[in-house]
Amino acid sequence: DSSSKAQRTGWLHSKPKEKSEKKDIDNSIPKESAARKLLRMAKLQQKTNHRIISPPTFHACGEGRRAVITENFISVPLDRYSSPSPSSSSSSLEEKIDIYFSIVDLITTPEEEAFFISLQKTDTTQVSSAKYRIREQQKRASDYKDFIALKNANECMLYLQGGPGFGAPQPINGIGLGDKSSWVGAALGKGYKRVVLMDQRGTGKSTTITKQTLEKKFRDLFVLDDLSPSVISSSCPSSMQSVNTELEDFKVSNPDLADKFQHALGQATNYMTHFRADNIVKDAEAVKDALLLPLEEDDNSPRPWGAALGQSFGGFCMMSYLSLIPNPPKICLLTGGIAPMLTNVDDVYHSLRERVKERNLKYYDRYPGDVAIVRRIVKRLIEKPASLPSGGMLTARRFLQVGISLGGSPSAFASLHSLFSSVFLSEDDDDFSRSFLKTIDSIQPFDDNPIYYLMHESIYADLNSKCKETEWSAMRAYDNCTDFGLEAVLANENQPVLLVGEVVLPWMSDGDYAELSGLSMRALAHSLASKNDWGYLYNAENMRKVLAVDGTGLSRAAAAVYYDDMYVDFNSCMKVTERGNPLENCKVFVTNEYQHSGLRDDGASIFCKLLGMARGEVGTPS
C-alpha cells in the first residue's frame, strides 16, 4: 500500500502518510424530522462550504429547451490520505482547497423556472460586504439543494477535462448547449437533467496553481531567485544535479537563505503531489455528495453519478475512478483517454514520437513551401532568440514546440500554415512581427498552466505499474532520435525540420518560459521529475471487477480510440482493452475519422454513439 511508504523526492523526505478510512456512500432517504434535517444540512454545509457564487443565468438551447447555469464551489481537504490529528477537536485545522464547478440544469417545468428566477435576486446595497456575499452565496446553494432535492445522482453527469492543468470548458463561452452542437446539449436530451463541469484541483478557478500563487504560498522557495541566473545556457541544460550543486554553493555563501529554500522546496514538492487523478476523482465524489440530500447514518446504499465523460487526461482520471472509488459512475465514457497503464512510459514516448514525425511529414506534404520557411525561422532563432511579450524567450527549441497542435482539430494544419506565413515583417526582412510573437505566447499554454508542465509526466507514474518515476522520459525519446536533432537536420538541406509534439522537457524552466523559470520553478520541476515513490493511480483487478458483465459489475464503459492520435498512443490503448486486461469489458469505437479533438469537433455524435454502446443500444463493436 502506498500509504505505508514515506513520500520521497530525491533528497527530500516527508512524513509517512496513512490513508483515512473511506465511508460508503448512501442511496435512499428515509423521512426525518425538520429539526434533524436542518442540523444535518447545517453540518454538511459547514464542512463543504458549498456556495453558488453569482446569480444563475438562463440560456436558450434550441429545440424548445432552456437551461440555467450556476457557478459553484466547495472546499475539500488538500490531503485526503492523512488522518486528522487526534488532539484536534475541529477539522478546520486541516488545509482546504476550493473546487469550482459549473452546473447546467435543464428546465422542464414552470416551477423550476420560477425557482431559478428567485435565485437571481440579490441585495445590491450589500455587495461590498464580504461577509454578506458569503452568506448570500451559501444561502443560494442551500436553497438550490433543497429545491432539486436529489435522492440519487442518476440524472447527473460529470465531465472530466483533459490536461493535466486545464479547467473545464465554460458553458456558452467554451461549449454550446444545443442538442447537435455539443455533447453537453446531447446529454441534456439523453436523460441527464444536470451536467456538472468541474475544474480539477489546481486548474481554472479551483485553487489555481500558477507561479504567482506558488510565490504567495511558498515565499521561501523564491528567496534565491534574484541571486541565481534565470537563464541557463542551452549548451548545458539544468538537471537535478545542477540544482543540488547550486544549492550547495548557496549553503556556503548564504546558508540561511539556502536552508529556507531547501525546506520550502520539500514543502512545495509534497504540496504538488496532491494534484493528481487519485485526488481529482475524490473531489468529484465530494461535489456529488454536496448536491445530494443527506441520508440516515446507517444507510450504506451507493449513489454514484449517473454517467461521467472523460476527455484525454480526463479518461485517465476515469480509469482512476474505476480503480479507486468503490462506486464509480454507472456509465463511464472515455474519448481519446485510455491510459497506457500496461506500457513503460519510455516506450509510450518513443511510439508517440514516431506518430509526431508522421504528422510532420503529412503537414509538409500539404504545405511543401513551409519546409524552407520553418528552416529559415529556426536558423534565425539560433542566431538570435527573440524576446516575447510575456517575458520569456523564443528560442529555436521553444519554437519547435508549436508542433503540439499538429494533431489537433481538422484546421490545425491550416492554422500552423497561417502562423508561419506571418512570422517575418516581409520576405526580405528577418525581423519577427510583433503579431507573431504575441501569437506564440497565446498558443503555448505552459506559462499560464504550469501543472501542464510540472505534473505532466507524473500521469504515467503509478505504484502498480512499470513506471515508478519518469525522470524526463520524453527528453530521452527525442534525444535518441537524430531526425529531431537540429544540428544534423540543418546540415542537410533536403531534410525538413521536425516540430515536436506534446512533451515537457527540462530546459523549459531554463529561461525560455518566464513563468516556469528561476531557481524556484527549476528546482520544483526537477524535484517532481525525480520523484520515485508516487502512489497508486490504477488497479487492474478493481477495474475488471466493477466492469464485469456477469451481473456483478457496477459500471458500464465505452471508449473512442483515435487511430491516428498524436497524444495518446493507439497501440498502448488497445493493449489495455484486450481480453484479460483491465478494460476488457469496455466497448471500443476505433476510428480514424477524428483526431484527438473529436469530442470538440463532433461532440454530440461521438457522445450519442458511446452512450448507446454503453447502454447496449448501438451495435459497436460489431
Low-confidence stretches: 1-32, 85-92
Overall outline: globular
Please give the count of helices.
Answer: 22
Computed over alpha carbons, the radius of gyration is 25 Å
Please state roughly what percent of the residues sit in beta strands, choosing from under 5%, 5-15%, 15-25%, 25-35%, 35-45% or over 45%.
5-15%
Number of strands: 16
Can you put this structure into words, describing what you see?
It is a single chain. With 622 residues, the protein is an alpha/beta fold. Helix content is 38%, strand content 14%. The model is unreliable at 1-32 and 85-92 (pLDDT under 50).
Q: Quick recap of the structure?
A:
Helix content is 38%, strand content 14%. The protein is of the alpha/beta class.
Main features:
622 residues; alpha/beta; two-stranded antiparallel ribbon; 22 helices; 16 strands; 14% strand
Q: Topology, pairings included?
A:
Elements: E1 8-9, E2 12-13, H1 34-48, E3 51-52, E4 57-62, E5 65-77, E6 96-107, H2 110-119, H3 130-148, E7 153-160, H4 183-188, E8 194-198, H5 211-217, H6 240-253, H7 255-272, H8 277-291, E9 305-311, H9 313-324, E10 331-335, H10 345-366, H11 370-383, E11 386-387, E12 393-394, H12 396-399, H13 412-421, E13 424-426, E14 429-432, H14 434-443, H15 451-454, H16 473-479, H17 486-491, H18 519-529, H19 540-546, E15 556-562, H20 570-577, E16 587-591, H21 598-601, H22 603-615
Helix pairs in contact: 6-7, 7-18, 8-9, 9-19, 10-16
